[in-house]
């Protein structure tokens, strides 16, 4: 009986070891972020103003050539300058809305542009300049999936224009909708709109 139990234990151990050795290794998750980018937004009442945008997502640190990957957990922030804040405070006490952001890329298929939509949760005033509001991925938005190209590296970038759909609540309680297009500001040298680091394609 002792011999039988010994052989059974050895067999179980062999199965466990075999499972460990043959289990696939998943890619680690990495945080990919842009620097703070400047967009020019035409705000009602105050004209074209800079809005400072930063975005990030989670994704794999490497992808096999021809393999797919899906950026997830998009977050971001919008920072408005004093002129915009003065406009918000002039007659409004709450702010909410969303953002449609084009995502472009290098060494990925299909050739972008793809769009991620993000929500701006309702924020109460009064607002203090500079005012930073935080964005979160819309759970109802389309899932962005890319196919890695040739071995080397791939990268994603935040494109232009951004499309804001802001709503501001007047002190009387009614909401006013603003559709605001924002173009990336032309600078010299050009702004670096790529999410970093690059994604390894092997």
Quick recap of the structure?
The protein has 202 residues and is of the alpha+beta class. It has helices at 2-22, 82-91, and strands at 29-33, 37-43, 47-60, 62-63, 68-69, 72-80, 92-106, 108-109, 114-124, 131-137, 146-148, 152-158, 162-170, 175-184, 199-201.
In words, what does this structure look like?
- The chain has helices at about 1-20, 80-90; strands at about 30-35, 35-45, 45-60, 60-65, 70, 70-80, 90-105, 110, 115-125, 130-135, 145-150, 150-160, 160-170, 175-185, 200.
- A hairpin with a 6-residue loop joins β9 and β10 (about 130-135).
- The strands form two sheets. An eight-stranded antiparallel β-barrel has the order 2-3-6-10-9-7-13-14.
- It contains two helices and 15 strands.
- The chain is about 15% helix and about 50% strand.
- With about 200 residues, the chain is of the alpha+beta class.
- Mean pLDDT is about 85; it is low at about 1-25.
């Amino acid at each position: 009986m002792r011999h039988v139990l010994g052989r059974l234990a050895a067999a179980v151990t062999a199965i466990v070891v075999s499972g460990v050795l043959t289990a696939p290794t998943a890619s680690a998750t990495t945080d990919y972020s842009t620097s703070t980018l400047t967009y020019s937004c035409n705000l009602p009442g105050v004209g074209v103003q800079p809005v400072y945008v930063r975005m990030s997502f989670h994704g794999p640190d490497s992808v096999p050539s021809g393999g797919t990957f899906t950026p997830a957990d998009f977050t971001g922030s919008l920072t408005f300058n004093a002129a915009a804040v003065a406009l918000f405070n002039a007659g409004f006490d709450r702010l909410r809305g969303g953002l449609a952001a084009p995502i472009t890329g290098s060494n990925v298929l299909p050739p972008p542009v793809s769009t991620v939509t993000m929500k701006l949760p309702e924020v109460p005033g009064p607002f203090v300049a500079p005012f930073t509001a935080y964005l979160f991925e819309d759970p109802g938005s389309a899932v962005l999936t890319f196919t890695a190209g040739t071995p080397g590296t791939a990268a994603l970038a935040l494109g232009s224009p951004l499309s804001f759909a802001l709503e501001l609540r007047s002190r009387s309680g009614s909401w006013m909708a603003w559709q605001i297009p924002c173009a990336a500001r032309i600078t010299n040298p050009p702004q670096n709109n790529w999410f970093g680091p690059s994604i390894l394609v092997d």
